[in-house]
From TrEMBL:
Record's keyword annotation contains ATP-binding: yes
NCBIfam families reported for this sequence: ruvA
One GO-annotated biological process of the protein: DNA recombination
Main location (coarse class): cytoplasm
Protein name: Holliday junction branch migration complex subunit RuvA
This protein's UniProt keywords: ATP-binding, Cytoplasm, DNA damage, DNA recombination, DNA repair, DNA-binding, Helicase, Hydrolase, Nucleotide-binding
GO molecular function: ATP binding; four-way junction DNA binding; four-way junction helicase activity; hydrolase activity
Region (Domain III) location: 151-198
């Protein structure tokens, strides 16, 4: 089991990065917002989870052990696979998932592409009492060069499955409503504009 990686970022894409460590490059799937902050040559520390399927071995990476813990719990929900679990973390974050479950907030969960009312209700039922307490990120993970919030959100939406033009239009509309919004608020507003559907 690969539980932690430290290395140099290479070839960051919309939702993945190649992490070079000890002369070996491993492809790691990350949230789109995280991928948008990564630059070639940046030193990166990731908590990881290896998901084994019959036809694939996929490595998922997280800035904090807490995110990985929430990801693991999300995978225990009926009908939630790794891709959907990553989408939940991309939209809500680990604290947002906890808040939605604590408040029994179906609406928050349905802002995630691929989750409808029935799926949200099932998630609330199955996650109650299972989520870990909040954690702390790795030191140094916030030292990435600044990227415009709008660009981060466009990349995040593309990583979640929308076309670039759809993503750019949704972000432009969200920025009209709240010009100074930070990434989480801008992503939420853009998702509302898109209707939360792929």
């Amino acid at each position: 089991m690969i539980a932690y990686l430290s290395g140099t970022a290479r070839s960051a894409a919309a939702d993945s990065v190649i992490l070079v460590s000890g002369g070996v490059g491993r492809l790691v799937t990350v949230t789109p917002a995280h991928a948008a902050r990564l630059r070639d040559g940046m030193e990166v520390d990731l908590h990881t989870e290896l998901v084994v399927r019959e036809d694939s071995l996929t490595l998922y990476g997280f800035e904090a052990a807490d995110e990985r813990s929430v990801f693991r719990v999300l995978l225990t929900v009926s009908g939630v696979g790794p891709k959907l679990a990553m989408a939940v973390l991309a939209v809500l974050g680990s604290d947002g998932v906890r808040a939605a479950v604590a408040a029994e907030d179906q609406a928050a969960l349905t802002t995630v592409p691929g989750i409808g009312k029935k799926g949200a209700a099932r998630m609330l039922l199955e996650l109650t009492g299972k989520l870990p307490a909040g954690g702390v990120g790795l030191p140094g993970t916030d030292a990435a060069p600044a990227v415009a919030p709008g660009d981060q959100v466009v990349d995040a939406l593309i990583g979640l499955g929308w076309k670039q033009m759809q993503a750019e239009n949704a972000v432009a509309q969200a920025r009209e409503a709240t010009p100074d919004a930070a990434v989480p608020a801008l992503l939420r507003d853009a998702l509302r504009t898109l209707g939360g559907r792929l």
